Amino acid sequence: MSDIVPPEVRPKPAVPAKPPNVGAPSPSSPFPPQGLGIGGGGGVSAPPPSGIPVPIGNHPPGHGASHGVGHGLGHGAGHGGGHAAVHSGGHGHAVSHSSSGGSTLLGYIGIDTIIEQMRKKTMKTGFDFNIMVVGHSGLGKSTLVNTLFKSQVSRRSAGWARDEKIPKTVEIKSMSHVIEEGGVKMKLTVVDTPGFGDQINNDNCWEPISKYINEQYEKFLKEEVNITRKKRIPDTRVHCCLYFISPTGHSLRQLDIEFMKRLSHSVNIIPVIAKADTMTIEERQEFKQRVRKELEMSGIEFYPQKEFDEDMEDKSDNDKIREAMPFAVVGSDKEYQVNGKRVLGRKTAWGIVEVENPNHCEFAQLRDFLIRSHLQDLKEVTHNIHYETYRAKRLNENGGLHPISSNDTQESNL
User: Fold this and answer.
1) Quick one: DSSP state of residue 18?
2) Which of 129, 143, 286, 410 is at a distance of 20 to 30 A from 367, taking alpha carbons?
3) What pLDDT, on a 0 to 100 scale, did the predictor assign at position 232?
4) Is 14 helix (H, G, I), strand (E, B) or coil?
5) Is 369 helix (H, G, I), strand (E, B) or coil?
6) Residue 252 has pLDDT above 70, yes or no
7) For 213-227, what is each residue's pLDDT tens digit?
8) Which pLDDT band holds residue 183 (cuts at 50, 70, 90)?
9) Strand partners, 181
10) Which neighbouring-strand residues pair with 70?
């Protein structure tokens, strides 16, 4: 008799058990089960359960899925399977990244508070701003600074009076004044240059000013190379130089051109036309156009320089400012009553010239530009451009400055 077992009594083949990660999705998972096929490839094996290491080296053809799950836990393109594995394996993160859709943050982090932190720190420590005024006597340099900062940084407090003799050479007079507004403290230093352009022979009269500017860079550099340097290095560098142009209505003097040409690469120069109320509106506009043309022909770049525009928005804003420069200004620290309001102005036989009235002069534009929109940029350009240029030159000349101790008071020869 045959030993063949009838077909109806043959043992049925064993059915393999279903993997734990394959099947219907969990109620909390928004992804369908086919999401485990990462990258759109069908027939990709399921990821190994947590606790089984994923081999590294020679990978099988289905490595795209297993590596995507094991390596990123939800990173990369086509993240459905990775995210599902995260949910089922209990290794979920609060953040899910996507190369195509950016990042989705679940909850508030507080990155935006950095602005408030910076504001509080600035209010506590304050900041320095150093402005230099250059121009021959009688152009109202000190008066304009008084008007700009609503403070009495006068000629007398700076150590120079009208009844004194004109110095034979340019003297540098500085005056510091702490101004507080809205809880923010600013140490304002005004550097005056009495004697500039007042002599019969003005050859090289810009050299004392250039030397002073470089000396401030040198002081900052020596503090930087100290082994034990101060937590906050005193900043005496000149952040801005207001150059006062006489309202002749004709053209720039040769001294004006030489000064701005020689110092435009070491300090931020802002040309202004002083005592603009001595010209009519038509004369003022013609003079401004003539000055801009002469500066362009001489290759003089005043602040804000075109090459320092960071983006299109900056370029658009700065182009408008460059087209309006040099600002024709009037300064006055005296108040008068006009239409029931107290205004700063100059009294003439024909009425009051209001300093802050844009129909009378461009003082308001200069103030907004200098203080309210570009003050921080003036400091940054001074540090990142002019000071870095000086620093690189000094280090190249000396082969590197050796660190000096805090008690070493020897001055460097420039």
Assistant:
1) P
2) 286
3) 87
4) coil
5) helix
6) yes
7) 999 999 999 999 888
8) confident
9) 184
10) none
Q: Report the phi/psi class of residue 77: left, alpha or beta, with left for phi > 0 and alpha for psi in -120 to 50.
A: beta
Average pLDDT over every residue of 235-258: 94
Polymer length of the chain:
414
pTM: 0.69
Q: Residue holding tokens 């086509």?
A: 78
Question: Amino acid identity of 37?
Answer: G
Instruction: Please state at what angle helix 254-263 crosses helix 207-224, rounded to 10 degrees.
Output: 10
Contact 285, 322 (CB under 8 A): no
Residue carrying structure tokens 């928004």? 30
- Taking 3-state DSSP, the helix, strand and coil percentages for the chain, each rounded to the nearest 5, stand at 35, 15, 50
Coil, strand, or helix at residue 352? strand
CA angle 42, 45, 51 (to 5 degrees): 150
Would you list the DSSP string of 189-230?
EEEE-TTTT-SS--TTTTHHHHHHHHHHHHHHHHHHT-SS--
Secondary structure element (H or E) that encloses residue 336, with its range: strand 335-338
